[in-house]
Write a structure and sequence with these properties.
This protein is of the alpha+beta class. Helix content is 35%, strand content 34%. The strands form three sheets. The protein has a five-stranded antiparallel beta sheet with strand order 10-1-2-11-12, covered by helices on one side. The protein has a five-stranded antiparallel beta sheet with strand order 5-6-7-8-9, with helices on one face. Strands 3-4 form a two-stranded antiparallel ribbon. The longest helix has 22 residues. It starts with a strand and ends with a strand. This is Proteasome subunit beta.
Length: 192
């Protein structure tokens, strides 16, 4: 029942995730952080079964750090997204991970970017994206209110509208959400 939301603003990328960890009909906790920081300027929001989600995210996180140490060079957001997509495709043929991802980052040359990936290893660069059951309710809100070059306050307002719609219309209660933004200054968690 994971919910991931993301959008690209004027000089930032915003990712939002619910904080529930559940399996079947049981909710284990409401303080799970599903948004992993891969680098100083890249985050990856993850959805899927807890084991697959945590293992795959940590695998990607460690390999991106290893690349940085070996080459004395950080991957761009596009490079990290392509590496992640390749790994998803490789595992799809061996022992697949059932993870859906939103990867956002900020690069000095290209600015903010957001990549949508699913468990079948398809990838697309998008201005806004959503995964999970919450996407059924939030895409209409994002379609209506998203515009290019939004300020941070406008982006927060759109995300709050998405969360309010999910709270109002979704059968399953998701009480808490976490929001992280990536700017030229790095990654930080913000309140919505």
């Amino acid at each position: 029942m994971d919910i991931l939301l993301g959008l690209v603003g004027k000089d930032y990328v915003m990712t939002v995730s619910d904080r529930s960890q559940a399996r079947s009909i049981v909710v284990f906790k409401h303080d799970e952080d599903k948004i992993f920081q891969l680098d100083d300027h890249i985050v990856m929001a993850t959805a899927g079964p807890q084991g697959d989600r945590a293992n795959f995210a940590e695998y990607i996180q460690r390999n991106i750090q290893l690349y940085k140490y070996r080459n004395d060079l950080s991957l761009t957001t596009k490079g990290a997204a392509n590496f992640t997509r390749t790994e998803l495709a490789t595992f799809l043929r061996k022992s697949p991970y059932q993870v859906n991802l939103l990867m956002g980052g900020y690069d000095e040359k290209t600015g903010p970017s957001l990549y949508y990936m699913d468990y079948m290893a398809s990838m697309h660069k998008m201005d806004y994206a959503a995964h999970g059951y919450g996407s059924y309710f939030s895409f209409s809100t994002l379609d209506k209110f998203y515009k290019k070059n939004m300020t941070l306050e406008e982006g927060k307002e759109v995300m709050m509208k998405c969360i309010k719609t999910i709270h109002k219309r979704f059968l399953v209660h998701c009480p808490k959400f976490i929001c992280k933004i990536v700017t030229k200054d790095g990654v930080k968690e913000i309140e919505l």
